[in-house]
Specification:
Elements: H1 5-22, H2 26-35, E1 40-41, H3 42-49, H4 53-65, E2 69-74, E3 77-82, H5 85-98, H6 102-113, E4 116-118, H7 120-128, E5 132-136, H8 140-145, E6 152-153, E7 171-175, H9 182-191, E8 198-201, H10 204-210
Parallel strand pairs: 4-8, 5-6, 5-7, 7-8
Antiparallel strand pairs: 1-3, 2-3
Helix pairs in contact: 5-10
């Protein structure tokens, strides 16, 4: 079937608008951030987000219908994961665009002032020459699935007790779940008073995953 030009444009724009609507929820953006780390069950995801399974299920269906998520069933449990790395790229781009808004930018000031960001590309180069230590502050279960090569896992809630494991003779990069995630913010607050060249991975582990295919 051949569509007239205007009809085709309208069809495409309707589809783009539906995708935008699917992302128009803080909960759904957090779902994408968490599922970018690893596949999770509905129950596990609901516990991490501190919302009911019934509420979460509605959000998951919206994201699945828009192509952001895939699911599989294992017995009585249903597991979700992001459909491809493009989901992470879109989510990161949306968050970075939001930084330009004055209300969002002012909220980020205290977070950004604690250290300077490092891009994924810059981190890759720094790791090649051995100038950087990455401290991954995500949960051990997330770290066990995958991580930045050579990273040390010190969850943010353990950082105060294990601060002696953070090297003082090289650049230290904090890697959290994603953009402005609480784990990274907490780690930056704890370490900001030490004499460290402290930085954070811009976009967190989500940004690392989004660019993995580019390294091949």
């Amino acid at each position: 079937m051949i569509f007239p030009t205007e009809s085709l444009e309208n069809l495409i724009m309707d589809g783009v608008a539906d995708v935008g609507k699917a992302l128009a929820s803080p909960i759904r953006l957090r779902v994408i951030r968490l599922l970018s780390q690893s596949e999770r069950s509905v129950e596990g995801l609901a516990a991490s987000l501190d919302i009911s399974v019934a509420n979460l299920s509605q959000h998951l269906q919206v994201l699945k219908r828009s192509g952001f998520l895939n699911s599989r069933r294992d017995g009585r449990r249903v597991y979700y994961q992001v459909s491809n790395r493009g989901v992470m790229v879109v989510s990161l781009a949306l968050a970075k665009w939001a930084e330009g808004r004055s209300d969002v930018g002012s909220s980020l000031y205290s977070f950004m002032a604690k250290s300077t960001p490092i891009s994924r590309a810059e981190l890759v180069e720094g790791l090649k020459v051995g100038k950087i230590t990455v401290i991954d502050v995500r949960h051990p279960e997330e770290f066990a699935v995958d991580c930045v090569p050579g990273a040390i896992n010190i969850p943010s809630h353990e950082l105060e007790r294990r601060v002696g494991e953070v090297p003082a003779d090289r650049d230290v990069v904090i890697c959290g779940q994603g953009l402005y995630s609480p784990d990274a913010s907490q780690a930056l607050s704890m370490l900001s008073g030490l004499k460290l060249n402290l930085r954070y991975l811009d976009g967190g582990y989500m940004a690392w995953c989004a660019g993995v295919a580019d390294d091949a």
